[in-house]
Amino acid sequence: MFQKTSAEGALFFRSLFERFRELLEYNNQMLELVADMGEKLSGDYVFDTHYLDKVITELDDLVYRIIYNLNTITENRYLSLYKVFERIRTSIRSEFTDDSLAAGGKRVMPLSEIDLDLVDLAGGKMATLGEIHSRLSQRVPPGFVITTQGYREFVGQKGLREAMRRAYEALETGVEPARVSADIRAAIEEAKLPEALESSIRGAAKRLEAQGYSYFSVRSSAIGEDEELSFAGQYRSFLQVPSVQLTERYKQVVASLFSPEAIVYRREHEIKHEKSAMAVGVLGMVAAQVSGVMYTRDPEAPDEDVILISAAWGLARTVVEGSGGTDFYRLARQAPGYKLIQSRIGAKQKLVVPDEGLGEREEMVPLERQTAPCLAEEDLERLAAIADQLEAYFKRPQDIEWAIAEAQGPFIIQSRPLRVRAVEKIGADEIKKATRAHPKLMEDTGMVACRGIGAGRVMRVLSDDDFDRFRRGSVLVARSTSPKLSPLIPLASAIVTDIGTPTGHMATVAREYRVPTLVDTGEATRRLDDGMEVTVDAQERVIYQGIVKELLRFQSFVEQPFADSREFRILRRLLKKIAPLHLTDPQSGEFSPNHCRTYHDITRFSHEMAVKEFINLHLQGRRWKRVPTHRLSLPVPLGLVVIDIGNGVVPEAAGKRLTPDQIASRPLHALLEGLCEEGVWRTEPVDLDFRSFMTSFTRTSQANPNEGQNLAVISREYMNLNLRLGYHFNMIDTIMTDNRNDNYIYFRFLGGVTDIARRSRRAKFLAEVLGHHDFLVEVKGDLVVARVRKINEEMMETRLAMLGRLIGYARQLDVLMRSDEAVERYVEQFLSPEPAGDPIPEETGGIP
Amino acid sequence: MSEPLEVLVLDDEPIVGSRIKPSLEKEGYNVEVMTDSREALGRIKRKRFDIVVTDFKMDGVTGLELLRVQKELWPESEVVIITGYATMEIAREAMQSGVFDFIPKPFRLHELKQVIERAAQAVRQRKQS
């Protein structure tokens, strides 16, 4: 055996280092791809499942390569990542088929875990109710859903499956649909539930009983129920069901999926009966004092700006079934608030109340209450506000069932699209005429972050004081897409900003709440005044003066809300398995392959481990023996491991310890000039205020990050610098030669210890500083990527020195970024001819 | 106002047509959406469309075949191809066959609309002369 020569060692190292650089590059491509996918949710793009398939294939490939490269670098020490990858990949792939989603789903799920993305599992009615609770924060009765997976387990039992097959064969041979329907329904009602399903239902019901609910409503929630199927109303629902009757009622609801009308409809539309499925919701019965129904428009006159509410004492049956006297209210929308324009108080002689034995019974209404209104003005206002919230969110007039229990606000029991009188289809001519009649305040402006049309009064939010003044339904106008505006987003009818990107955090939130949003319009805060009525067309990128009703009508009655389409649902579900980052703290015991739940977790973990491998090269035994590794002693508290791959240190430097003057690498030398400049480096930890302190607790285990874990791989003309300072990553890759055509600097910055608002502000700070120095900058959330190429030596030198100063300056700057104004101040401070050493904290903290 | 132009949108994924249709209708076009390329081939033989927006790669008839038939039957019409497989080769072939424009998927709705507007101008000019 012969020993590797130093030259061979260096060669070997170089090939591994190449893998490392690839890994960093894949990592970056992955993050950018994910940001692009997020942007597709804006609705501004037309994409199809082919796109989803393509982008997922690309992602699979990138993540696989990252794992492969990590294992090449580390002599296969992370082979278990392949298994994790395969698990996540399979789960992601399953999102493409609705059936396997149901198959992968649970048979019984609490309503609180359900939203519209799970419509294939929970059915339309329950998924909507879950969404109203989770996204719109409205109160809904507690409950659970027996999913389409539960349904498939039930009807998939051999006996039942056979019976259904026979019945459908009979249909083919000409047997009457009514007869076929009766046979199937009988088979369903006679069949036993599978044991696992039965016990899941029992367990879930017990939990509801423990919360004080002894009766339930059992409601159909079929796939596509509230859409075009005209017989949907015939699916059954039951009120006041005691737990002993649950399974029986469940089967009856399921059986109603096979009414003669439904069977005929499916035959005519060539829908296989195996394709239809019924989820069933089981909700605790609210002990309602008053209940009723609300339409967000008048179905007979959908153009009028009114809300209709009907109400009766007791449980909802009276109103829903139209039996007995009810109150009727008609409210007009006005800015601000609502005006009661008509009320007809019915003679309410009877009411339905819960009954311990029978479930419910009718009672006489006491005489003095028979002709008293059930709803006070504040109840009406509250209900009307909910009506507007739901209509704005679902982009459709809604038919809402509600109940008010003593001392509690309204519960929403159900919301579905309102069937309105067929409005004359609004034509292009009418829209053109209307849009011509309204002056265009801004035209061809900005980028669409969430597609749609919204109208209301302008409310500019320029300082923290404006937050409290913001009214629901206003058009939010702000300087930038700051995450701090997030709490106002659900209240806004539309959003317009001067600057910002459709990939940032705020854009994501706007899409979650489906608020039409235009970003980067340049001058909205100057062109739009408070109180002005405007219509924001975040489709054509126009802002009109006044309310263009025709555009709103087109949106409500002609366009299908894009966010409800299958492709958007799949994309949202895919992103949930790709984008969230759970592994944030490398010091934590959970920072391991087994805790990776998303692709982002895998890539984050791989990145960290790859860097660590190089930093600890000298500890890795024989195979690294010949690679010249040094520790650089600096006058600032930054531990740096230096690996020289070719004339990066002076020949005299034989020892492990290096001093800055022994660095021969031109780029690192230039960077150190700035980094070690007097006063640049803040040694004291900045004053974490309580809030960031708490955030740092959740994001990290210790508030004192190790600053020794940094790496520079250098040669005479090359430097690859990896810094993990605090909890953010900073990577600089650069070549600096006499030939300007070879020169480049690539800068990448990600993460931090504080909340997303502050991290985004720091990203903005970096972008402005780098932009000022001629870098081409891209910001996606808190990821900053900047490049500059083909500049001469002298310019390289000043920029690298600037980056050195910037590293020190920006190190914990996110903590100080308490307001958006802070960004500009720090930019100014940093760029001033004599930069102050430390960023100076603001005197008072604004809203973080 | 001049007569509304007739537009056919063909893509085997329903989402594409259902998103494009209202967006073009709002501009005053009469829009028909189809997802089956064979049926579409039959349809263009019976009805004169001024503008055809078609996917490139479909089961049955390809966008290129459809383009050829359309241009042969209705030379004054325009065809716009949208595709998720945007290769140089496809673009070259489509251009040679007289495609008006070629848009890679995914695209922004207003990008498509601008192309359609230009195509509409070309068709209208031809109609007048």
List the helices and strands and how they pair.
The complex is a heterodimer of chains A (848) and B (129).
Chain A: H1 6-40, E1 45-46, H2 49-73, H3 80-93, H4 98-104, E2 108-110, H5 119-134, E3 143-146, H6 148-155, H7 158-172, H8 177-190, H9 195-210, E4 215-222, E5 237-242, H10 246-255, H11 260-268, E6 278-284, E7 288-295, E8 306-313, H12 317-321, E9 327-333, E10 338-344, E11 350-355, E12 359-364, H13 367-370, H14 377-394, E13 398-405, E14 410-417, H15 428-437, E15 440-443, E16 447-450, E17 452-460, H16 466-469, E18 475-478, E19 494-497, H17 505-512, E20 517-519, H18 524-527, E21 533-538, E22 542-545, H19 549-557, H20 566-578, H21 599-615, E23 629-632, E24 640-646, E25 657-658, H22 666-675, H23 690-699, E26 711-715, E27 718-725, E28 728-735, E29 744-751, H24 756-772, E30 776-780, E31 783-789, H25 793-810, H26 813-816, H27 820-831
Parallel strand pairs in A: 17-18, 18-19, 19-20, 23-25, 24-26
Antiparallel strand pairs in A: 2-3, 3-6, 4-5, 4-6, 7-8, 7-13, 8-9, 9-10, 11-12, 13-14, 15-22, 16-20, 17-21, 21-22, 23-24, 26-27, 27-28, 28-29, 29-31, 30-31
Chain B: E1 6-10, H1 14-25, E2 30-34, H2 37-46, E3 51-55, H3 63-73, E4 78-83, H4 88-96, E5 101-104, E6 107-108, H5 109-128
Parallel strand pairs in B: 1-2, 1-3, 3-4, 4-5
Helix pairs in contact in B: 2-3
